[in-house]
Amino acid sequence: MVYLFLIFGFVLLIKGADFFVDGSSSVAKLLKVPAIIIGLTVVAFGTSMPEASVSITAALQGKNNLAVSNVLGSNMFNLLIVLGASALMRPILTSETVTKREFPFSIFITAALLALTSGFAVSDIAAGQGEYTLGRVGGVILLILFAVFLFVQVKGALKARDEHDGEVYEAMPPLKSAAFIIIGLAGIIWGGNLVVDSATEIAQRFGLSQTFIGLTIVAMGTSLPELVTSMVAAKKGENDLALGNVVGSNIFNILLILGSSAAISPIVVDVNAIYDMIILIIISVLVYICSKSQKELSKKEGIMFLLVYLVYFGYIYTR
User: What is the torsion angle, in degrees rounded to the nearest 10, for the CA atoms of residue 220, residue 225, residue 230 and residue 232?
Assistant: First the structure.
């Protein structure tokens, strides 16, 4: 029965993402807001709901190690698998706005997360020992950064709307657009939960550890909305929506989800989580360089991202 739930979850994710992309794109046109803004906010928030559900629930239950591994694993999956698979379908033209502002910001907040959690204990990290904590103060700092991010996005959206005032766009009626978004989001969240629960139960049957499940099965499951949404967007030529979804989702994951989780209950992690943060920064810089150099993510780069993820998967499986 668990395998049927897994398949049903995938169906919900795929159809939900299809509806959600169409509805969000239509809203962007109705509001005369660039699709990249919608991707960085509405779509990113919607597809980050499974991560939020898992991580905040884990925080309330005092299982914050799952919250951290889920977010780090999801962000890694977003950068390498989501962008890699999307680029394989169609080269992703990168937005100059994202490469100049949001992408560097996502790298900065990952470095900030590392600093807030590690306390700059370089010698202990190098020795592979010690416990590290992202406390409530750190969580509040992340939430403040999230508020700043939202303010900048809203300000940019209002400016863009004023600049494009008077232009005519073909879009669905407002009520239909809203219905598409609500139905799509419901399918994404419900499908994501079904996939996570089913995959976790299957993984546990095979005796895999909780940390490994958090970094892989749960992270992959909660990132399926980003994967499906970005691939559907890429297929439909909504490149800004695909890239904005990934970058925006990574920002939401760190600032909103880990910020909220740490504010609820301090997060204690081991040195492996610190290593994962460092790896995430390196991979973020790699993807950033690729997206900025040719102003697009090609199919070759998509293949490279997928191979890098396989190497990372092998690393966390064997450590």
Answer: 120
Tens digits of residue pLDDT in 84-138: 988 888 888 787 778 888 899 999 999 999 999 998 888 889 888 888 999 999 9
Domain architecture of the chain: domains with CATH: 34-169+209-318 (1.20.1420.30)
Q: What is the DSSP letter of 40?
A: I
Compute φ and ψ for 92, nearest 5 degrees. Answer: -95, 115
What's the whole-model pTM score? 0.79
50 near 262, Cβ under 8 Å? no
How far apart (Å, rounded) are the C-alpha atoms in residues 243 and 234?
Answer: 9
Q: Which residues contact 225 (CB under 8 A, 6 or more apart)?
A: 13, 16, 17, 46, 47, 48, 49, 50, 188, 189, 191, 192
